[in-house]
Amino acid sequence: MAVARGGLFGTGIGTTIHGRLATQAYNDFIFSFIIEEKGLIAAIFIFSLYALFFFRCIRIASHCKGTFGGMCVAGIGTLVLVQALINMSVAVSLLPVTGQPLPFISYGGSAYLCMGCGLGIIQAVAADNKKQARIAQQAERTADPEKGETPETDSQNKQQTNEKS
User: Fold this and answer.
1) Which of 83, 119, 134, 139 lies at a CB distance of 3.0 to 4.6 Å from 151, suitable for a disulfide?
2) Long-range CB contacts for residues 112-118, cutoff 8 Å, separation at least 24
């Protein structure tokens, strides 16, 4: 009902009727009341933010040197996107009520805590990717092509000298 009442541009903030009648308007059904107050434009905007988040996670995962960090980032991105899609589907009555909160929007302490930890893992992997890229660039700059050194032989030489001492 709230989704149909919202239309394309919504009824305006604070003018919800169905939000006052629902028991979990701030939690499980927040998406339908966002649509009622702000309209279909806001729904498309929110969905596009989740899609952008997912594609950024996939980009971070694709730049990982190791598989563990990439799998963690891809898994967390998929988790957030699927959870958002489930909540949005429940809000527009495509799925039965499941109790999934809308990530980063719905009220809920444990959901915020888990999403915050997931964002921390994603940021740590992204920072490690940047660090590894900087190290690789520095190795390329310090390698001496006149001596026949490449970044690989230069790092092997450093490892051999470290093992000898």
Assistant:
1) 139
2) 115/80, 118/76, 118/79, 118/80
